[in-house]
Write a structure and sequence with these properties.
alpha+beta, 6-stranded antiparallel β-sheet, 4-stranded antiparallel β-sheet
Length: about 625
């Protein structure tokens, strides 16, 4: 089966190269039947890729250790849920998943009204660009990251999955990120195709649902990744500005910027060149994200490491960037309208987009700084979380403030609803005063929390005061901004006002943290065929009332010498008690780390709202076929 799967991918590569040449010939000759053949050819390529995916999935389920990939990520004790998720646990499997989703997305797009609304010339260019991208991924899979390498001789058992990946987050976080990366190929290819065909206006509407779905997948994956880090790594936080975390945040920033510039582009017929460039670069940055985690260019706790793909990926990124810039430069802008003033809804949307692009640039610059600093220093210089917090958090707060004002402004100029703007301003001032009176006086946290309240006030009031905001799509947009406000509120309090201690505690001993009393009730060991567990039981009280018991663990997995922490929390909409068992101490007690994280769960609640609300924005499009 190893050779069968590899030959299947090789045929897919050869077929893609042939279809790319065939489609280019269709562009030169203008023969319509050639484009139909290209579309049908993609069906065959997709079938081949799905067949290869089926072979890998079968090998995982059967624990066929003659596959080197299976041997590297699965063992006889691994639960079936994690056996299945091993498909995307390694570099080879995750790239195969990405390529398969891209191919399937193109097939689905082919049958949508949006695709049929594009001119034949734009569709031809769409396939040319798509086949170039697909060919590169297939070249990677057949040359550098082949998931079907045979292990000779086949071992009796595998190495097993990294313990950090044995978490429910593994089931959802990586595939959601990869779905976001892969689905962005549709609007990116459409943007480039429209630019090269000289027919730019229609592609935004034609791929609207695709850009929203890609954004939803990427956003959901990032939020789940933050929750996973919070619950699994024992750092006490949800975002450490690690290069792998940043790898997905950078295209998210540009993708979110496009969501806002696309509104101006579709509604006002403006920003044609900007929209093409931003969307194309969003997909380029998705590829750049995989370069960061697979090239070894930066160090990270959970990167894949160098796999011989750095040079091909970097070359392809530079090639795609050049193509994107050229397409934006050549785009037809003869029918474009001028933008409104700064104090207008258009102006605020453009400022929000520029703020997001600035965020993406800062995060990318900070992530690559160890590499950049080598230009003038023998020793690379890294930037820690303090740099990102100082530069990025004010920009996130600015976004909340922009969304507080934007709905109350007219499209072209001036204020359209003074009542709403006054209410948003009053919410900001009153909440800032209330938070300050309660003792929360750190400037950035105070402004952020007040901006979050103002943003949520606007999101709710706009539906009541503005009749055009009562459509399903507008309500969905308001819900997204409501979720943003909830997240900003959670971030504003959970980080700056976190209280934590590390203590060596004997059984029966109590200690205080953030107004709570914790008592170590018991420490015991437990073992199974997969791991040995050290378990602590902590009783939590406040004001003499027992609030609950938390049970942090220290786990030693079979085949690993390093123990791993299993975090335990006592959740709450106000404070959350977060505990990590660091180990045993000399008197038979436990060494513990305990944090009190205020309002942290509003980060996850807001994230859920942001992830689900865009589904209400999706539209069912009925477009006349232009064929």
């Amino acid at each position: 089966m190893h050779m069968t799967a590899y030959i299947t991918m090789l045929f897919a590569l050869i077929g893609t190269l042939f279809l790319g040449g065939w489609t280019a010939a269709a562009l030169l000759t203008g023969r319509r039947e050639r484009l139909v053949f290209s579309e049908r050819g993609q069906l065959a390529i997709t079938a081949l890729l799905l067949f290869a995916c089926g072979i890998l999935l079968r090998a995982l389920v059967l624990r066929d250790y003659s596959f080197y990939y299976v041997m590297s990520h699965v063992d006889s004790t691994l639960e079936m849920a994690y056996v299945l998720t091993a498909f995307w646990a390694g570099s080879e499997g995750s790239l195969l998943f990405w390529e398969a989703v891209m191919a399937l997305s193109a097939v689905i797009f082919m049958f949508t009204p949006g695709y049929k609304s594009l001119s034949e010339r734009t569709r031809t260019w769409f396939w040319i660009v798509f086949f170039v991208i697909q060919a590169f991924f297939l070249l990677m899979l057949t040359c550098w990251v082949n998931p079907f390498v045979q292990a000779i001789p086949a071992p009796l058992d595998g190495k097993g999955m990294n313990p950090l990946l044995r978490n429910p987050g593994m089931i959802f976080h990586p595939p959601l990120l990869l779905l976001g990366y892969a689905v962005y190929v549709i609007p990116a290819c459409a943007a480039l195709g429209a630019a090269f065909s000289g027919e730019t206006p229609e592609w935004i509407k034609a791929t609207r649902n695709w850009s929203i779905l890609a954004w939803v997948f990427l956003t959901s994956g990032i939020i789940l990744g933050g929750w996973w880090s919070y619950m699994e790594l024992g750092w006490g936080g949800y975002w450490a500005w690690d290069p792998v975390e940043n790898a997905s945040l950078i295209p998210w920033c540009t993708g979110t910027a496009f969501v806002h510039t696309a509104i101006v582009g579709a509604r006002r017929n403006a920003l044609a060149k900007s929209n093409i460039l931003i969307m194309a670069l969003t997909f380029v940055l998705c590829v750049f994200g995989t370069y960061l985690v697979r090239s070894g260019v930066v160090e990270s706790l959970h990167a894949f490491g160098e796999g011989g793909v750095a040079a091909p990926l970097l070359s392809f990124i530079l090639f795609l960037t050049a193509i994107s810039v050229a397409a934006a430069y050549l785009a037809n802008t003869r029918e474009q309208r001028s933008l409104g003033g700064l104090v207008s809804r258009e102006g605020m949307l453009v400022v929000a987009a520029w703020t997001l692009l600035a965020l993406g640039f800062v995060v990318g610059l900070g992530t690559m700084w160890p590499v950049i600093s080598k230009l003038w220093s023998v020793k690379s210089v890294g930037l820690d979380a303090h740099f990102y917090n100082r530069v990025c958090l004010p920009l996130f707060v600015l976004l909340a403030l922009l969304f507080s004002a934007c709905p109350w402004l007219g499209w072209k100029e001036g204020v359209r609803d003074k009542r709403g703007l006054a209410a948003a301003l009053a919410a900001f001032v009153l909440s800032a005063g209330a938070f300050a009176a309660l003792g929360y006086q750190l400037p950035l946290a105070l402004i952020g929390a007040a901006g979050a309240v103002s943003c949520m006030t606007t999101a709710l009031l706009a539906i009541g005061l503005l009749p055009e905001m009562r459509t399903r799509q507008s309500i969905g947009a308001s819900a997204i901004h409501l979720g943003l406000g909830l997240m900003v509120l959670g971030v504003a309090f959970s980080g700056p006002y976190q209280v934590g201690v590390e203590r060596d505690v004997a059984v029966g001993q109590s200690f205080e943290v953030g107004g709570y009393t914790l008592t170590l009730k018991d420490v015991h060991e437990k073992s199974s065929k997969n791991m040995a567990q050290l378990i602590a039981e902590l009783e939590v009280k406040k004001g003499g009332k027992v609030l609950g018991t938390i049970v942090p663990e220290r786990r030693l997995y079979r085949g690993y010498e390093q123990p791993f922490a299993e975090v335990a929390v006592l959740p709450g909409l106000g404070d959350e008690i977060f505990s990590v068992l660091l180990g045993l101490n000399n008197d038979g007690g436990a060494s513990l780390k305990v944090n009190v994280n205020p309002l942290v769960n509003w980060v996850w609640i807001g994230g859920i709202v942001i992830s689900l609300a865009p589904l209400f924005i999706l539209r069912r499009r009925k477009v006349r076929d232009k064929e």
